[in-house]
Specification:
The complex is a heterotrimer. By secondary structure, chain A is mostly helical. Chain A has one domain: MetI-like fold (Orthogonal Bundle). In chain A, about 75% of the residues lie in helices and about 0% in strands. In chain A, helix 6 packs across helix 8 and helix 9 packs antiparallel against helix 10. The longest helix of chain A is centred in the N-terminal third of the chain and has 34 residues. Chain B has two domains: about 150 residues, Periplasmic binding protein-like II (D-Maltodextrin-Binding Protein, domain 2, 3-Layer(aba) Sandwich); about 150 residues, Periplasmic binding protein-like II (D-Maltodextrin-Binding Protein, domain 2), CATH 3.40.190. Chain B is globular. Chain C is mainly alpha-helical. Chain C has two domains: about 45 residues; about 230 residues, Orthogonal Bundle (MetI-like fold), CATH 1.10.3720. Classes of the chains: A mainly alpha, B alpha/beta, C mainly alpha. At the A-B interface, helix 1, helix 6 and helix 12 of A face helix 2, helix 4, strand 7 and helix 9 of B.
Chain lengths: ~270, ~350, ~280
């Protein structure tokens, strides 16, 4: 396999494509191939069973909601960390990455405990009839936890790089802080925010370790798709597991595409 | 200038697809040799890999050193025992996919049958070890709150309105199929026909607000997060929990199932490793009074009749009047098909809950 | 631009006093407390519940130290590999216009969206006994799955996108002007990258590396499927946590979790040091 000697610029391309092929494309093909061993009828039955459909809905909608919430608050946190100085800032800066470092099962355990009806936070909400652990809300909180670093850490570098001159120019021309924020600061940040949301969403969609512990795993209520996949595996039904995996992959790719297209469109519009 | 030259050299490697694949293989080879280095330490003695389901660790911590010492005394050889613990189903899949276990100690016969079906265990494994290959046992229990306010004494109490039951999901934890079987068995023993028995089990699962991922999560939901009025879990799990500080009153219903945990030698791997002698000795050792005592201490019902009669254990393990086994219901393949396949009974129960 | 520093500093100071800032900071901290801090404090609480001595006793068990070692080794291998890949991918995407960019980026994001269970499954489908390369690997006695290489592949898979996705926005924000200028002045590609691009993207790169490292050390799902969880051999720290927890050794499990959290903090402290060193350098220049 001799490739013609191309100019150096394509080296990053070569590395990228080669690495992606070995690490992503070939495994993905293996996944599709395995799913294809199920007859089309069986594939359809597994992929569209009522429990599966409800699981997709629970998974994607909850993940989208969590990602959006994190988009808002994550940006806020990034802003606060970059632009202001306050006591314990260093500590808070360091703690943002905690959700990554903690194994997902620990995350699930601690959230399930803290938000259960006898937990530190859960007990405060119980009198109002609000149950978090073992409901879809609990799944949402777990997703918030594990996807939080994405938005913060994606927006932060961009904020840091942003030159404050343009903002200061706007102020000196009489714009209020709010106006400056909406018209000057936010537009360049929006791509990064959307990236963070996309990343957080992806992460939340696939999450199993923490969500399975916080949820009650009741079908049609808070049973999520990754748990469904694990159930298939536990039945030694590899093909069935890959069927659901493939469906999730397809839906995720679609939603990611939408978010990323939005981002690209937004950037072009801003320019 | 020096930077430039080294970069050009690197460029030659990167500028061909083969180069990149070669680099990838080099990385793999490097890590393979890294792991080989650590494996090299086991050369002087003999090695054995035990793959077991999760909660046997407490017992194995005591049993394994005893065996190692015994083997050293008798054969003047150091045996290194590699241990792996995890969910029974997960371990089974791992062994089928290539985890080189010499011995598997799993939570239900179905899992060993799967490994047999994959060609790794020769047929007739049940006869290789005493007691039909069963080395530890347990039964199902119902745990209640302090003082048992809802007065839950037996399986039928779990069908009552307003009683919330916590149990593990048989679909994420194959072992939890024993719990389902215990309920089914209770209904059948009470004389119900299949339709009524299904109704019974449906009613119980309707009272289940949380299907925990596995036995451990079920314990946590009940003990730690104080969910539910009753918990269905295996006796050995509850005894281990209580030893670690989670204690609540529990009953061992008189109509029950014998949760039999089989042990098997994985012939394919043993033949490849050439350690059959020590592996067989290890399996035999697990049936010895010493090992069975350790299992009993860890909460498993001993299969060794002598140990089972010991006073400390007759108190610990209440006698069960009517004990059914998986065989009584046609063996695991039938059970799997009847209750847990796609669209079978458990599926129907789940969909009915909607 | 640097001459603005003093006035910006005083501006920043007066800004941090005003009420809008306080409201924002307060909200941010409240959110963090609810979602992050309180659950995290609970982890520490569980770890130290029986006292400090048992915590340290757990840390010296040989199972535990082997797990720490393995976790660090995997991180040390995976992070550089994915950093190189990430930089290449980011450069290729950010510095070129082509159709279907959104698609490429979405594909890059996929390893996140794939559930760790499925990711592990994919590795098994390729390298397991019944997988595509299964018979080849068995014949040549090369151990990939249930050994270190398999765990590295799984970890590299789930941390694949981080560096790329962190660097792309920063690279785009920075713009290609400076690089083009450098090129017209005669710099070759490596010099352009090392002296012009890298300083511009260093924050994105740094955050990407930190995220990769944190995830590589904390990854459970995918690794658990491909590791076989053999104590002292293929058990990483997250697997150790799960194992301990299953045995009802709750305190041991949470102690290990605390250590993982502290490891993450260490990398962040290193980042802070790096940050301070490079910004001092910048001011001096």
């Amino acid at each position: 396999m001799r490739f013609p000697k191309l100019p150096p610029i394509s080296i990053p391309w070569r590395i990228k494509i080669a690495y992606l092929t070995v690490m992503l494309f070939v495994p993905a093909i293996a996944l599709f191939a395995k799913a294809a061993t199920a007859s089309p009828e069986r594939f359809w039955r597994i992929a569209t069973s009522p429990i599966a459909l409800s699981a997709y809905e629970v998974t994607f909608v909850t993940a989208l909601g969590s990602a959006a919430i994190n988009g808002l608050f994550g940006t806020l946190i990034a802003w606060v960390l970059v632009r202001y100085d306050f006591p314990f800032k260093r500590f808070i800066e360091a703690s943002v990455d905690l959700p990554f470092a903690l194994p997902t099962s620990v995350a699930g355990l601690t959230i399930a405990t803290v938000y259960s009806t006898n937990g530190w936070i859960g007990s405060l909400l119980a009198p109002f009839g609000i149950r978090i652990s073992f409901t879809r809300l609990g799944v949402g909180i777990a997703m918030l936890f594990i996807s939080l670093p994405f938005v913060v850490r994606t927006v932060q570098p961009v904020l840091k790089e942003m030159e404050k001159d343009v903002e200061e120019a706007a102020w000196s021309l009489g714009a209020s802080q709010m106006e400056t924020f909406w018209r000057v600061t936010l537009p360049p940040l929006l791509p990064a925010i959307l990236t963070g949301i996309a990343l957080g969403f992806s992460r939340a969609v696939g999450e199993y370790g923490s969500t399975v512990i916080v949820a009650s795993n009741t079908p049609f209520r808070d049973l999520i798709a990754p748990v469904l996949i694990f159930q298939r595996l536990e039945q030694y039904d590899y093909a069935g597991a890959t069927v659901i995996g493939v469906v999730m992959l397809a839906i995720s790719l679609l939603l990611l595409l939408v978010i990323n297209l939005l981002q690209a469109w937004g950037r072009r519009y801003a320019n | 200038m020096v930077q430039q030259r080294s970069f050009f050299q690197w460029r030659k490697v990167f500028s061909s697809f083969r180069g990149i694949v070669a680099l990838f293989l080099v990385a793999i080879a490097a890590s393979v040799s890294l792991s080989a280095c650590s494996a090299a330490s086991g050369q002087r003695g003999v090695e054995l890999t035990l793959v077991s389901f999760a909660v046997t660790k407490a017992a194995n911590v005591e049993i394994i050193p005893k065996f190692v010492e015994k083997w050293k005394r008798e054969h003047n050889q150091i045996v290194t025992i590699n241990e792996s613990y995890g969910g029974s189903g997960t371990q089974t899949r791992a062994v089928i996919d290539g985890l080189e276990a010499d011995v598997v100690h799993l939570a239900l016969g179905l899992d060993v049958k799967k490994i047999e079906k994959a060609g790794l265990i020769d047929a007739g494994w049940e006869k290789e070890a005493p007691n039909n290959g069963i080395v530890t046992k347990s039964v199902a229990t119902i745990v209640t709150r302090e003082g048992n306010p809802k007065n839950i004494q037996n399986w039928s109490d779990l069908t009552r309105e307003g009683v919330q039951v916590i149990t593990a999901d048989p679909r994420t934890s194959g072992v939890a199929r024993w719990n389902f079987l215990a309920l089914w068995n209770a209904a059948k023993q009470a004389g119900s026909d299949p339709a009524k028995a299904e109704e019974f089990v449906t009613q119980v699962y309707r009272n289940v607000p949380i299907l925990a991922r596995d036995a451990r999560e079920a314990s946590d939901a009940f003990f730690k997060q104080e969910q539910g009025d009753a918990l269905i879990n295996y006796e050995n799990e509850i005894i281990l929990a209580s030893q670690k500080g989670l204690t609540l009153p529990y009953t061992v219903p008189n109509v029950n199932v014998s949760i039999d945990n089989p042990i098997a030698i994985v012939d394919k791997n043993v033949n490849q490793h050439g350690n059959r002698e020590v592996v067989e000795a290890f399996v035999k050792f697990l049936y010895s009074p010493e090992a069975q005592t350790e299992f009993a201490k860890a909460g498993f019902r001993p299969v060794n009749a002598e140990i089972a009669q010991a006073k400390e254990f007759t108190e610990k393990f209440p006698k069960v009047a009517e004990l059914a086994t998986a065989q009584d219901y046609g063996g695991w393949n039938t059970i799997q098909q009847k209750f847990f396949e796609d669209g079978a009974m458990f599926d129907r129960i789940q969909t009915a809950k909607q | 631009m640097q001459t603005n520093l003093p006035s910006v500093a005083t501006e920043a100071k007066s800004r941090s006093m005003n009420w809008a800032a306080i409201a924002l900071i307060g909200t941010a901290i409240a959110y963090l407390a609810l979602v992050l801090f309180i659950p995290a404090i609970n982890v520490f609480f569980q770890a130290f519940r029986l006292g400090v001595a048992p915590f340290f006793k757990n840390l010296t068990a040989s199972d535990f130290t082997s797990a720490v070692q393995l976790t660090l080794i995997i991180a040390l291998i995976v992070v550089p590999i994915n950093t190189v890949f990430g930089l290449c991918a980011a450069w290729a995407i950010a510095r070129h216009q082509f159709r279907g960019k959104a698609l490429v980026i979405s594909i890059l994001d996929l390893p996140f969206a794939i559930s760790p269970v499925v990711a592990g499954l994919m590795v098994v489908l390729l390298y397991g006994n019944q997988g595509w390369f299964g018979s080849f690997l068995q014949a040549t006695d090369i151990k990939i799955i249930f050994a270190l290489p398999g765990m590295i592949i799984a970890t590299a898979f789930v941390t694949l996108p981080f560096v790329a996705r962190e660097v792309i926005p920063v690279l785009e924000e920075a713009g290609a002007d400076q690089e083009e200028a450098a090129r017209t002045l005669g710099a070759n590609d490596w010099q352009v990258f090392w002296r012009v691009t890298l300083p511009n993207i260093r924050w994105g790169l740094l955050y990407g590396v930190i995220l990769t490292n944190a995830r590589a050390m904390g990854e459970f799902g995918a690794v658990s499927v491909v590791s076989g969880n053999i104590a002292r051999k293929t058990q990483t720290l997250p697997l150790f946590v799960e194992d301990a927890y299953k045995q009802y050794a709750t305190q041991s499990a949470f102690s290990a979790a605390v250590l993982l959290a502290l490891l993450a903090v260490v990398t962040l402290v290193l980042k802070e040091i790096l940050e301070r060193k490079t910004s001092i350098k910048q001011v001096e220049e």
